[in-house]
Amino acid sequence: MARYRGSVCRLCRREGMKLFLKGERCFTDKCSIERRNYPPGQHGQDRPKFSDYGVQLREKQKVRRIYGLLERQFRRTVRQAERMKGVKGENLLALLERRLDNVVYRLGFVNSRSEARQLVRHGHFTVNGRRVDIPSYSVRVGDLVGLTPRGKSAARIAEALDALEARTLPSWISVDKEKQQGEILAQPNREEITLPIQEQLIIELYSR
């Protein structure tokens, strides 16, 4: 399966903000944004002027990189959001938040979405007691996300759970540290997505 293999710190610098792609490193002085807060490349320190299309494109690239989707996957998600009832932009963010790899990250089982995607692929997680190894699997209200026996013995997951108290969980999910299990309580809440995302720009881009 195709996947971006380059430096993820370059992506944060390109978007001019922390995308939290490297877990704990993003909260330290080693974060690339703290050290070189300008786009990579020869002309990175110039001040580019973006057209309306350029602003929309940058917003799309930013959100796509936050959630770790390739262009075809992201376009398909946008089209799905457009067919749903309600506000299209909020539908899009809800679909992205309900991806299993994102839910695993939100629950605190891992330190980054890329790590979540890898561990889901390796079969470390279950949904309602059944092993699921598809990162794009969409969870529903009432679903229980747990660990397989292999996942319970993974050192990376154990370390993340030890630091769970330091994380703030969104209100639409809950986690039982003792049972090593999370529950989907409601649909994702737009107000709790704190990253500066302007989802309407993405809808406008794909409506051209």
Q: In percent terms, what proportion of residues is strand?
A: 5-15%
- Low-pLDDT regions: none
First and last CA, distance: 29 Å
Report the mean per-residue pLDDT as an integer.
Answer: 85
Shape: globular
Judged by helices, strands and strand pairing, the structural class is alpha+beta
Strand order of the largest sheet: 2-1-3-5-4
Largest sheet: 5 strands, antiparallel
Number of helices: 10
Order of helices and strands: HHHHHHHEEEHHEEH
**What percent of residues adopt helix (DSSP H or I)?**
40-55%
What is the secondary structure topology, with strand pairs?
Blueprint: H1 8-15, H2 32-35, H3 52-67, H4 71-83, H5 88-97, H6 100-107, H7 113-121, E1 125-127, E2 130-131, E3 144-147, H8 149-152, H9 155-162, E4 173-176, E5 181-184, H10 199-206
Antiparallel strand pairs: 1-2, 1-3, 3-5, 4-5
Q: Can you describe this structure?
A:
By secondary structure, the chain is α+β, with helices and mostly antiparallel strands. The chain has helices spanning 8-15, 32-35, 52-67, 71-83, 88-97, 100-107, 113-121, 149-152, 155-162, 199-206, and strands at residues 125-127, 130-131, 144-147, 173-176, 181-184. It has a five-stranded antiparallel beta sheet. The longest helix has 16 residues, at 52-67. It is globular, with a radius of gyration of 18 Å. The two termini are 29 Å apart. The mean pLDDT is 85.
List keywords for this structure.
208 residues; alpha+beta; globular
Summary, kept brief:
It contains 10 helices and 5 strands, in the order αααααααβββααββα. With 208 residues, the chain is α+β, with helices and mostly antiparallel strands.
